[in-house]
Amino acid sequence: MEPIIKHFTDDDLYKFSMCCAILNCFPRAMVRYQFVDRNNTVYPQGFDALLREQIGYLEDLRFTDEEQAFMERRCIYIPRWFYTYLKGFRYKAEWVKVSQDAEGHLSVTFEGYWHETVLLEVKVLSIISELYHIVNGDIDKVDYEAYRQLSYDKAVRMLEAGLKVADFGCRRRLSHDAEDAMMRGFLEASQKVKGPGVFTGSSTVWFAMKYDVQPIGTMAHEFVSSIAGMYGPQEANHIAMDMWQKTFIGSLGIFLYDTFGFKAFADNFSEHFARVFAGLRVDSGDNLEQLDKICAKYAEFGIDSASKQVVFSNALDTDRAIALHKAVDGRVQDSYGIGTHLTCDFGHLGIQPMNIVIKLVASKITEKRDWNDTCKMSEDAGKYTGKKETFELFKTLLHI
Fold first, then answer.
1. pTM over 0.90
2. What whole-number distance in Å separates Cα of residue 336 and Cα of residue 317?
3. Other CB atoms closer than 10 Å to residue 44's CB: what's the count?
C-alpha cells in the first residue's frame, strides 16, 4: 500500500506551535501517549501490520523549502530557529508501539521526548481513520465531486448565517481526498457569498498551503496535561499560559481551557492572562453554559466579553453551529472550528466516522525523573482519558 501521509505539513497547525513552545520551555521533557477508540471498534485482523507499515513511511517525510516559505509568510509568530529544527526533524517508527488483540481491538502507544512525539498524534490518527475506511471498503463508495457539492451547500448556509468557520477535520477524516473535496467546496462558496460570514482557513497546514488560506490553530489539551504531570494540576493552567505567552509574545492567544474543567482553569485565570490572551476555546460541556461562565469571568475583571474571541469546537455540525451563532448574539466574537462533520460526513452512504483520540497519559520534566501519570477530564465525563485513580487524585487536588 502506498503512503497515506505524503506531506510533512499534512498535520494540524497546533502540533507545530506546541512543538515550538515545548522546545522553548521543556526541551528535556518526556511523555507517554495512549490511543483510545471510544467506539471500541473491532478492526480486521492484520490491521496492526498495515498500520505499522504506514507509520514506517513517516520516516521518509521531510519539511520542504516550499512548506517553510509558506509558514514563514503565514505564521509570522513562529521564530525562525524553529524551522531549522523542522528541517532536521526525522520521524522514527520505534517511537510507536502497535498491537492488536485476538478480538481485533487496537492498541497504540508512543513514548519519547515530548518535542519529538508531539508531532505523531494527528498523523497517526489520520492514518488509522483512512486506513480503516480503505480496508472496510468505504472509500470505494464515495463520489468526491458529490462531496464537494455537499460541502459547498454547507458552506453557503453557514456563511450566509454570518459564521466565521474553519476546517478542523484532519484527524478523523475519511481520507486526504475527502478533506480536499471539502476545501474546494468551501472555497467556492466563499467566492459566492460576500459577507457577513467568512471561511477563515484550515487547521491542516498542507491544505492551507495548497489553497493559500490561513492555517488555524494554537494548542491542545496535552500541553496542560503534560505540565500537570510534571508540576501537579493545581497550577497547570497558569504555567501553561505563562509558557505560551513567553514563547509567542501575545500571538496565538486563544487558550484551550477545559483540560481539567472550567473551575480549575478559572482559579488560574488572572486579570493579567484575561487581558493578554485574545480569547478562549470551548471544546466540551454545554456551549451556552460555558459561554455564560466565560462572560461572567471576564466581567469580574471589568472586561467587556464582546471584545474577546471565543472559538467553539465541540462536536459541531452545520445546524448546531448556526443555532449557536444566533444564541451567542454578539456577546463575544465567536468563531467555529468544525472537524468530522466537514471531512467525514458520509452517513447517507452508511459510512460512520471514527471516534478515536490519542491522549497524553504520563510525563516527566527530564529523562532522569520518575514518570507521573496525568489525564484529561474536560467538561464531559465521556471525554475523560487516563486512569480512574488519576482522575480521583486530580479532583481531590483541584477541589472539584
1. yes
2. 10
3. 12
CA angle 115–217–250, rounded 5-degree value:
85
- Cell 467555529 belongs to 336
pLDDT tens digit at each of 400 positions of the chain: 999 999 999 999 999 999 999 999 999 999 999 999 999 999 999 999 999 999 999 999 999 999 999 999 999 999 999 999 999 999 999 999 999 999 999 999 999 999 999 999 999 999 999 999 999 999 999 999 999 999 999 999 999 999 999 999 999 999 999 999 999 999 999 999 988 999 999 999 999 999 999 999 999 999 999 999 999 999 999 999 999 999 999 999 999 999 999 999 999 999 999 999 999 999 999 999 999 999 999 999 999 999 999 999 999 999 999 999 999 999 999 999 999 999 999 999 999 999 999 999 999 999 999 999 999 998 987 778 899 999 999 999 999 9
For residue 372, give the 3-state DSSP assignment: strand
Residue owning grid cell 486563544: 254
Is the Cα dihedral 388, 315, 278, 71 positive or negative?
positive
The span from the CA of 213 to the CA of 166, in Å, is 10
Nearest CA among 209, 235, 254 for reference residue 77:
254
The C-alpha cell at 113 is: 521526548
What is the 3-class SS of 201-267, one letter each residue? EECEHHHHHHCCCCECCCCCHHHHHHHHHHHCCCCHHHHHHHHHHHHHCCCCCEEECCCCCHHHHHH
| Short-list 124, 140, 145, CA closest to 11 | 124
Which grid coordinates are listed for 283?
471544546
Residue 277 DSSP class: S
Burial of 288 (C-beta count, 10 Å sphere; 0-12/13-18/19+): middle
Cα(20)–Cα(14) distance, integer angstroms: 10
SS3 45: coil
How far apart are alpha carbons 53 and 2 in whole angstroms? 10
* Greatest C-alpha distance within the chain: 59
Beta bridge partners, 385, equal 376
The span from the CA of 173 to the CA of 63, in Å, is 22
